[in-house]
């Protein structure tokens, strides 16, 4: 089990890119933190989620 934005999910072994592809997040407008470290967008395909991970995803919103 791991936590994404406070929600416990059983996604160990899934890549971050695969999770984001099936999520409502717009990967072009987010930042991802894994265990307190920002994950570069270039590493999403190689980042495999593991038990105990704490993931925080924030979306950027434009406005004026």
Write the layout of secondary structure elements.
Elements lengths: L1 E3 L2 E3 L6 H6 L8 E5 L2 E3 L14 E6 L5
What does this structure look like?
The protein is mainly beta. The chain has a single domain (2-59), classed as Roll (Ubiquitin-like (UB roll)). Helix content is 9%, strand content 31%. It has a five-stranded mixed beta sheet, with no helix packed on it. Strand 3 (30-34) and strand 4 (37-39) form a beta hairpin. The termini are far apart. The mean pLDDT is 95.
Keywords:
64 residues, mainly beta, Ubiquitin-like (UB roll), 5-stranded mixed sheet, 5 strands
Could you provide a short overview of the structure?
The protein contains one helix and five strands, in the order E-E-H-E-E-E. It is mostly beta strands.
Going by helix content, strand content and strand pairing, the class is mainly beta
Main β sheet profile: 5 strands, mixed
Number of domains: 1
SSE order, one letter for each helix or strand: EEHEEE
Radius of gyration: 11 Å
Fourth-level CATH superfamily: Beta-grasp domain
Content of β-strand: 25-35%
């Amino acid at each position: 089990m791991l936590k994404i934005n406070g929600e416990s999910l059983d996604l160990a072994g899934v890549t971050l890119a695969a999770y984001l592809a099936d999520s409502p997040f717009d990967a072009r407008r987010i930042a991802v933190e894994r265990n307190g470290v920002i994950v570069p967008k270039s590493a999403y395909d190689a980042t495999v989620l593991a038990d105990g991970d704490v993931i925080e995803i924030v979306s950027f919103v434009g406005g004026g």
